[in-house]
Structure of RNA polymerase sigma-70 factor:
Amino acid sequence: MNRNPNTAIDELYPSLQPLLFSLAYRMLGSAADAEDIVQEAFLALELASSKQEPIQNIKAYSCRIVTNRCIDYLRSARKQREVYVGPWLPEPLVSLENHTNDPYYRYQQNESLSTAYLLLLQQLSSVERAVFLLREVLQVDYEEIAAMVGRSSTNCRQLFHRAKRSIMNIPADAKMAADAGLHPDSALKSPLDNTQLKNLISQFIHALASGSAQEMMSMLASEATLYSDGGGKVRAAIRPIFGAEFITRFLSGLLAKVPEGFSYREALVNGTPGLVTYVHGQPSTVFSFDVKEDRIAAIFIIVNPDKLARVEPLIIAGGQ
């Protein structure tokens, strides 16, 4: 994307913002932090464009800014992540299916935004993650990637292949992914087509809502895993729950404690069928799922209120 240096940055915003956000979000797993970094990138672009020396490739230049700021952020946040209370899950991107005008909608249809995929990326170092995403997801060539991350093209090629091997092999020290039974074949592409996947999740949600423990168990893989992210801010399971029977018991227990004003609706969560629950119209929980073969292999539950800030409230008839 070669542009005249006098082109107003706000004219570039509609075309560049979704790309930069998708990169930053995959790097960080946080929509709020991704938006902050993208805004910083546009401020840096404005500053650079005000100088006499033109930017030859604004797309590459802006991706470089976002990539480097994400790497710096991940390095500074490493200690904070290490003391996070309970399992860490990425902040969900939620779209109601009739919201086709959502600016992030088409990016949420990409399998590389699924919760399972984002968790697999967590086993990579920040630089490996950047190289892998730029090459695998955004199809940037190695010369451009090298300029973005300050490495040689040969080193970037090596980093990419190492990152891909790491994800495909799921090494033993990637405990969270391994325990969840997450394999790239399920994280990247479900063997079920979209309609089958939606039907399976819808049936599970119906079973959950009706309290049918036996029906829930029939749709769970025997070695399924449930993760609940409360971030120490609200009550949540601080350890993963393993096995279909224990997951069913846990979910049945949640159902028994449904508060007054509870409601729910199905939605797209990171591009795959999921569930949002509400209390008096305010988002309280987001569920997403990973499917392996024709069973649910993992359930991800987000109750951390900080990660629900972007989820739209439910409009209640009568304004109650």
